[in-house]
Amino acid sequence: GPRFTTVKQLPYDRIRTTMTEFPFCELCWEEYSDFENRRFHAQTFSCAICGPNYKLFNNKLEEIEIHHNENLLLETTKRLKQGKIGAIKGIGGVHLVCLADQDNTILNLRNRKGDRKYKPFAVMVPNLEIISNDFIISKKEESLLKSFRRPIVLLNKKNDGNKSDLSELIAPGLKNIGFMLPYSGIHHLIFDFLGKKPLIYTSGNTSHIPMPIENQEILKELDGIADFFLLHNRNIYQRADDSVLRVHGIKKKLIRRSRGYVPEYYSLPFECKIPGAIATGPELNVTGALLRRNRIFPTQHIGNVTRLETYNFLKDAIFHMKNLLQIKDSEINFITTDAHPAFESTKLGKDLSEKYEVPLYPIQHHFAHILGLMAENEIPINEKIIGISTDGVGFGDDGNIWGGEILLCDYESYQRLGHLQYQPMIGGDRCTTYPARMLASILLKTMGEEEARKQFEYLNLSKDLEYGKDELKLLIKTYNSSKKSYNTIPLTSSTGRIFDSVSYLLGACQIKTYRGEPAMRLEGLAYRGNPNKIDLKIEYQEKNKYYIINTGKLILDILDLQKIKSNRVKDIAAKFQKEIGKTFAEISVNLAKYYDIKYIGITGGVSYNYSFAKEVKNVVQSKGIRFLEHDKIAPGDAGISTGQIIGAIFKYKTNIES
To answer: Which helix (H) or strand (E) holds 593?
Structure first.
């Protein structure tokens, strides 16, 4: 509920929340003081007399004089029915709201928000019955949707060809849509007056910066985006976005952990008496985290800290959590960060280390993923696991970009036993925005310039580069120049970049407009594919129990499969997802047997892909090995700060002992 967004400090009483601005009326005070009343000491309850109260503003930021709540709701829903976009303030921030079945309105919303060409929107529905004919809703998904946490849950479209009334522009190219049910009074009241119409409910901000939470900021920042504003006058002390998750079988996979989950803690599976420590997280999809003895308290979802506004939000969230937990400066024993030296979150960690005069412990990105997985599954201190950590980017010990890793881990250390073949990223991060660049880089390395040029022409690859043929010429020139000078092109073992390349090759995604889009569109393409119709085997090399998965050969094989007219791209996509999962699993099983390991687990952002993760699980369990997966800690970068704390605990203990 609203507690986290309103409380300033503990203990939790009304006078220490932003509700202190709204004294109880006589009737509310009687209920609050009555031990037998269900509202006894309910700190945030109120009524229309006490406040808070809503007001309506037009697109000129002028208040519309309406004196009764019923008329306020009638006017709000009338504007929504007319295709208008509203900014509606809620518990932890402000949403941009519009009808979910009107293409023109949704296009307007995308254009006004800025960098939001294809990124999916969440949809709020008054009940699940209105979408049950078009979307698969498992018992687990229904339970989560109806829980007090009220998260956004990704639901798959049905496979029987039914066409939903929802606009295709909500989540273009994807197999699922994120739905949530009403979780505050204003939501229920709007649906009471609107009827059984689904609404887009998306964060009320311009792209890449935190949503505003003060009314004047909301009016200023969303001017030109919203057509009207429905704002209450309760101050939001801490913003909290809606939490987002998907379900694999009976396990939930948190994508964004925020409202409904924060400030709940994770209990460590081992004894820890350290009074306090801080983790600053990675750079993308960030959360911070604080250690309080045997418990880890992650912050709410922060976002990408490459922007100053988000960087400041991370600092504020960390200090607020520190204040709530009543951790004194003198109780901070260490700071921990990502191992990437250029991350803004790493720089913040260095500043905090100097401020509190305590050690700084960088933790390798993929090791942090696996540490969170181990703690969640209560792995004993003296046990090791084989961890499969697959994502887009993580700074490796050799200075390269890791992201397709098989690590032998305990809580204190890790050993790299396998990974995807290194591939060049010509142009660095431009390869993440333009998958055609990543594919071109792989083809140049694998085939050489002469043969690669033929494939570029066959694919008409230059059309999907920002500067067309000129950019392709420069890309080839850069690659040839790199042969003469060592280390001029970054190398990556990223699983994300391979998914991007396959997505481009099969026509699912030509340019990335939001994080994870190529892989998500590939999963959407594969959703109705049949992997059994495609013959594909991924090769790998082993030397002294060290494995390298041959992704260059994999890309060439998919290119050949794509050229066969009888092969459907959706079948190739389905086979690729399954086969790469199978390959990671087979290698991990071989290593587990060799090192006598009882556990194999999967983590990292790519493990959100259901087919990939399911194949790993099936292979591991078929060999009688215990399979570890996430259910509480986010598999993606939102879980990194928790892993950083765990890794740093053992570094700190080692330093103390030495």
So the answer is: helix 569-595
Q: How far apart are the first and last CA of the chain?
A: 46
- Distance separating alpha carbons of residues 27 and 11, to the nearest angstrom: 25
Output phi, psi for 409, to 5 deg.
-130, 145
- Note if the bond before 23 is cis, omega within 30 degrees: no
Q: How far apart are CA 390 and CA 401, in angstroms?
A: 12
**Strands 491-492, 423-424: pairing kind:** antiparallel
| Cα gap 282→298, rounded to integer Å | 13
Q: In sequence order, which ranges of 26-129 are alpha helices (DSSP H)?
A: 26-33, 69-81, 103-113
Place of tokens 């590939």: 522
**Per-residue CA distances from 609 to 496, 519, 523 (Å):** 11, 8, 7
* Angstrom distance (rounded) from CA 3 to CA 442: 50
> Within a 10 A sphere around the Cβ of 47, how many other Cβ atoms?
12
| Gap between the Cα atoms of 23 and 50, Å rounded | 6
Q: Tell me which residue of 452, 458, 461, 454 sits closest to 434, measured CA to CA.
A: 461
Query: Per DSSP, what are the bridge partners of residue 405?
Result: 389, 419
- The pLDDT score that the predictor gives to residue 483 is 79
- Gap between the Cα atoms of 438 and 422, Å rounded: 12
Instruction: Confirm if 635 and 328 have CB atoms less than 8 A apart.
Output: no
Determine the 3-state secondary structure of 19 from DSSP. Answer: helix
Residue with tokens 């991350």: 343
Contact status, residue 365 vs residue 340, Cβ threshold 8 Å? yes
Q: What is the pLDDT of residue 161?
A: 46
Count CB atoms within 10 A of the CB of residue 453: 16
Report pLDDT digits (tens) over 486-509: 578 999 999 999 999 999 999 999
- Residue 441 contacts residue 423 (beta carbons within 8 Å): yes
Shortest CA distance to 314 belongs to which of 292, 293, 343?
343
Q: Tell me if 116 sits within 8 A of 170, measured CB to CB.
A: no
The CA-atom distances, in angstroms, between 219 and each of 87, 231, 519, 587, 620 are: 9, 9, 36, 55, 53
pTM value? 0.96
Is it true that the peptide bond before 120 is cis, omega within 30 degrees of 0? Answer: no
- The residues, ordered by sequence, that sit 6+ positions from 139 with a Cβ below 8 Å of its Cβ are none
Digit-coded pLDDT (tens) for 567-579: 999 999 999 999 9
For the chain, domains (ranges, CATH) are 1-52 (no CATH), 54-245 (3.90.870.40), 262-377+638-657 (3.30.420.360), 423-633 (3.30.420.40)
Strands 152-156 and 199-203: unpaired
Reading phi first (left if > 0) and then psi (alpha if -120 to 50, else beta), residue 99 is in: beta
Give dist(CA 424, CA 490) in Å, integer.
6
